[in-house]
Each structure stands twice: as C-alpha cells, then as structure tokens.
Amino acid sequence: MTEKMVDQTDKFNRYGFVVDIKATKSQIKAAVEQMYGVKVVKVNTMIYPAKRKVKYTKRGLSLSKQGAYKKAIVQLKEGDSIDFYNL
Q1: How many domains does the chain have?
Q2: The pTM is what?
Q3: I need a surface site. Which of 18, 20, 29, 76 has the fewest CB within 10 A?
C-alpha cells in the first residue's frame, strides 16, 4: 500500500492489486467480488513493461531484468470496503 493508493482508497473507494498479465477486466472483477464479498463498479488496468538494469561492478557489467506486471485499480460500490488487515 503506497501513500497514493491509500489516498485513492479514502477519497474514491478504490483499491489496487497486482494481477496476472493475461487477466481480463471481467475476470478481475469476478475474482475480487468472490474473494472479498463486495460489489465492483469499475476496473482500470495498466501494464508496466519489463525493465533492464545495468550495474557497474569491479567484475564488469552486471545485467539484470525486472519482470513486467499488470496492475488493476478496482472501484467498489459506495458503502463497500475491503479490510486487508483483518482477513
């Protein structure tokens, strides 16, 4: 939970999840509704591409890769909420 996501949760009743890259909006909506017993109004998704990193070390260049992932922002019906701390 980042500060930006906590602010979204407080103001607009939105929650963020990292999901499988192949998941569709309707699959994400069904999964959240089933897992948490809430009504989902809207789902926004964004795909973050893989990043390549280069480190300069005493032994030479070290190449690494950070994997790609998909993030979903789920807006719940007014009055519904998810309590992650008491699950």
Answers
A1: 1
A2: 0.82
A3: 18
